[in-house]
């Protein structure tokens, strides 16, 4: 039997872990979008625009082909019946979001090209797939056999572990993106990353991994191969997908909005 103090301790640490895991997802999201934006700026720069145009076009085309193929496969695998309305909504809305990102990116005032929405499309298709895979095993819309679910769960566990380590190290090194210190000059004896921010990201990443193990619910009862399985896990990933699209669209539109505001304020000065 646990004492009241132990129960209170586990409750408080569980709530902190929920918050920390959400912070890690947000940091990971900003890091991914920052990388995609940096890659697009390299593509549009004079140094690489002419030399690597074919390579970037091939990358963008491949990204869109994989996105469309992934959406088609999800329709085949996870909507075996017309009654699977929730899965149909998830997949169809992902396709709509992909089209929306492409349309905004190709708008004459934005002109961001095909590469960034293609890569973001890969990210949201992956989030949609992982969200559907996180649905409970008793869901009739999941046609995969129990055996295939077992090894896919093992692979997902390993991928999640690698993603946590990579995201922790990448965001820890690129901490200036989150600390508003890009313009500061770095001394010769300075390390290229922040120790404090690195450990903060690693701590939130650990909280995120703990949430995967309990399916984002402290009342989740572990069964065989139930890592990151449950409706809470599904909706966390779906909301993360929608938030990713919102942040990406804002990063495309924000410069235009700020520029129009500055132009509107100049006559009043």
UniProtKB/TrEMBL annotation:
Entry keywords, A to Z: Membrane, Transmembrane, Transmembrane helix
InterPro entries to which the protein is assigned, alphabetical: TDE1/TMS
Membrane topology: Multi-pass membrane protein
Annotated TM spans: 16-36, 56-78, 84-102, 114-132, 152-173, 193-218, 238-258
Keyword Nucleotidyltransferase tagged: no
Name of this protein: Probable serine incorporator
Localization, UniProt: Membrane
Coiled-coil spans in chain: none
Pfam families (UniProt xref): Serinc (PF03348)
Superkingdom of this protein's organism: Eukaryota
Protein family according to the UniProt entry: Belongs to the TDE1 family.
GO cellular component, one term: membrane
């Amino acid at each position: 039997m646990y004492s009241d103090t132990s129960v209170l301790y586990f409750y408080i640490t569980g709530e902190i872990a929920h918050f920390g895991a959400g912070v890690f997802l947000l940091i990971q999201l900003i890091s991914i979008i920052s990388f995609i934006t940096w890659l697009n700026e390299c593509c549009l720069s004079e140094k690489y625009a002419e030399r690597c145009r074919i390579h970037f076009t091939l990358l963008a085309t491949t990204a869109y082909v994989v996105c469309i193929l992934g959406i088609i496969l999800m329709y085949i695998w996870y909507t075996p019946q017309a009654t699977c309305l929730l899965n149909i909504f998830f997949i169809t809305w992902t396709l709509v979001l992909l089209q929306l990102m492409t349309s905004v990116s190709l708008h004459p005032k934005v002109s961001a090209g095909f590469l960034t929405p293609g890569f973001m499309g890969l990210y949201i298709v992956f989030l949609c797939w992982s969200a559907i895979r996180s649905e409970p095993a008793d869901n009739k819309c999941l046609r995969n056999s129990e055996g295939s679910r077992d090894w896919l769960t093992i692979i997902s566990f390993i991928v999640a572990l690698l993603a946590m380590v990579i995201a922790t190290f990448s965001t820890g090194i690129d901490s200036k993106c989150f600390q508003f210190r890009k313009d500061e000059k770095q001394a010769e004896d300075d390390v290229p990353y922040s120790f404090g921010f690195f450990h903060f990201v690693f701590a939130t990443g650990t909280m995120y991994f703990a949430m995967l193990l309990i399916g984002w619910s402290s009342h989740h009862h572990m069964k065989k191969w139930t890592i990151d399985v449950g409706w809470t896990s599904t909706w966390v990933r779906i909301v993360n997908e929608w938030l990713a699209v919102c942040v990406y669209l804002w990063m495309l539109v924000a410069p235009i909005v700020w520029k129009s505001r500055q132009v509107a304020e100049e006559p009043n000065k």
